[in-house]
Write a structure and sequence with these properties.
The chain is α/β, with parallel strands linked by helices. Belongs to the glycosyl hydrolase 1 family.
Length: about 575
């Protein structure tokens, strides 16, 4: 068979499959991810559980905050949320159906210990049953101890994270969780995104407990000092919890803290000032927490620019240093960064991860959100801050690898869709996930030790101050009936997991659920037959030896990155 004929058929197959396959194509570098790479999904207790006044649960700071007028979109709260408290078997069945073998969840401190200290038997029973079922379904839990829902009793008693008293209370809570659930849970996270909850809770006041310097928005607080103090106590609480963890567990167990941030790129090419600003900005986001956890102290740049920054004692530094076994990385977007004294139109300047101190008091950097369509950042999702920047995930992972030399897991990554996009036929989300998973593979190829990826989120849920106005889930939740409907991205993610596990991208049957793939299958079958003929023909007697053709993997026909799909592909 002439090579030209095969090439023509390949072109025909690509032309036929373009509209059908493109939006559902798998990441082109998927098989570059190592064997054993874990794909999972993530949730958080307050965002999905509901049952706020059931099972002996006490109120958390998010119960109090969300019930204050004007604090959340449409006054939404987590009172009912996805009702996971009553529907967790259904949600675990969804995980199993998708072949998701890794599930990141959080324990509600206020459900387990309503007053922050006293154990609630009904809370223990709920989490025990949940974890038992996960293990029964061969799904490995990754448990977060604190995903922002501090017992309101501790906030009332001593202002929560602003008091050193919180350190012992958190460590005792963590130790009790290790004791109760350690037989099922091997991977533990102390805190999720302290950058976000100390910045939003004590810097801007847009998150619980709602403290800031702006008296038009907050009745109390100091945006210059309180985020630093709260973060300091978070770090010490982690160190004491990690110490108790290591006294109890050894080989086969790990503990970490999940941090978040952007990749900061210099705005002006060749500008030394912008390069320095970008470096300082990365340290202000990532190294603020990770330097103490890995190296034992704050980064010098933060010390130099933050006079209100508390200091660690020698004993505290020793306890902190090396207190994580790996890094949890939450990533959604990136930004370009300019020097603080650079002047730009006000409309083009964004904030710095929600923390005024990064832009104002500490003068570390001014961030700029480029307009939609700029080739360096890309389109924006349903949230105005979420610019699609998969290259930023690659660069963040490489930056963290170079600085800390620890294994990593991408513990959250996902998006909401722009207004007007179909929430169930969510091809925009598929494109986002595909490009970012490919970014993880690229980072691994360039030397980053990344071991897992968790999509945010399994379910649409309560998205904090945005309430239920933003949907990040692989599963659509009707908030009136609480009915779960898997989205197109759910089927795509299930196919991706199966493809990686089987080391094959040739999974045509499930490429585009609900679409006619007869032509794609027919062309693929013809091509497979032709390639077999070509292989056999090599061993048949010939009068003249022909040059062997280049064999083309069938997966090239099925998996076509960067095919026009109406969505920019990175």
């Amino acid at each position: 068979m002439a090579l030209g004929a095969v090439t023509a058929l390949l072109c025909l197959a690509q032309a036929t499959a373009t509209k059908t396959v493109a939006v559902d194509a798998l990441p082109p570098n998927l098989l570059a991810l190592p064997d054993g790479f874990a794909f999972g999904a993530a949730t958080a207790a307050y965002q999905i559980e509901g049952a706020a006044s059931e099972g002996g649960r006490g109120p958390s700071i998010w119960d109090a905050f969300s019930h204050e007028k004007g604090k959340t979109h449409d006054g939404d709260s987590g009172d009912v949320a996805d009702d996971h408290y009553h529907r967790y078997p259904e949600d675990i069945d969804l995980l199993a159906k998708a072949g998701i073998k890794h599930y990141r969840l959080s324990i509600s401190w206020s459900r387990l210990m309503p007053d922050g200290r006293t154990l609630n038997d009904e809370g223990v029973a709920f989490y025990s049953a949940l974890l038992d079922l996960l293990v029964e379904k061969n799904i490995e839990p990754r448990v977060t101890l604190y995903h922002w829902d501090l017992p309101q009793a501790l906030e009332d008693e001593y202002n929560g994270w602003l008091s050193p008293s919180i350190v012992e209370d958190f460590a005792a809570y963590a130790e009790k969780c290790f004791e109760l659930f350690g037989h099922h849970v091997k991977t533990w996270t102390t805190f999720n995104e302290p950058l976000t909850f100390v910045g939003g809770g004590y810097g801007t006041g847009v998150m619980a407990p709602g403290r800031c310097s702006d008296r038009s928005r907050c009745i109390a607080g100091d945006s210059e000092t309180e985020p630093l103090l709260a973060a300091h106590n978070v770090l010490l609480a982690h160190a004491h919890a990690a110490s108790r963890f290591r006294a109890r567990f050894s080989k086969g167990y790990s503990i970490d803290m999940v941090n978040c941030g952007w990749m900061a790129w210099p705005l002006r090419d060749g500008s030394v000032d912008d390069m320095n600003a970008a470096s300082s900005f990365m340290e202000a986001q990532w190294a603020w927490f990770l330097d103490p956890l890995v190296r034992g102290d704050y980064p010098p740049s933060l010390k130099a620019r933050a006079p209100a920054l508390p200091q660690f004692t020698i004993e505290e530094q020793t306890l902190l240093k090396g207190s994580v076994d790996m890094l949890g990385v939450n990533y959604y977007t990136s930004r370009y960064v300019a020097a603080a004294d650079a002047v730009y139109p006000a409309a083009s300047v964004g904030d710095a991860a929600g923390i005024p101190a990064l832009n104002g008091e500490y003068h570390l950097a001014t961030t700029r959100s480029l307009s939609e369509g700029d080739p360096r950042i890309g389109v924006v999702g349903g949230s105005p801050w979420l610019y699609v920047a998969p290259d930023g995930l690659t660069d963040v992972l490489l930056w963290l690898q170079d600085r800390y030399h620890l294994p990593m897991a991408v513990t959250e990554n996902g998006c909401d869709q722009p207004s007007g996009e179909d929430e169930r036929d969510d091809v925009w989300r598929i494109d986002y996930l595909r490009s970012h998973i490919d970014g993880v593979a690229t980072a691994i190829q360039r030397g980053a030790d990344v071991q897992a990826y968790y999509a945010w989120s399994l379910l649409d849920n309560f998205e904090w101050a945005d309430g239920y106005s933003k949907r990040f889930g692989l599963v659509f939740v009707d908030y009136n009936t609480l009915t779960r409907t898997p989205k197109r991205s759910f089927a795509w993610y299930a196919r991706l997991i199966h493809a990686h596990a089987s080391s094959s991208l040739l999974l045509v049957d499930d490429v585009a659920p609900g679409r006619d793939l007869k032509m794609v299958r027919a062309v693929s079958a013809v091509l497979l037959f032709l390639l077999c003929v070509m292989v056999v023909s090599r061993f048949l007697p010939k009068r003249r030896r022909l040059r062997a053709p280049r064999y083309i993997e069938i997966s090239e026909v099925v998996t076509m990155p960067n095919v026009e799909s109406g969505v920019e592909v990175f």
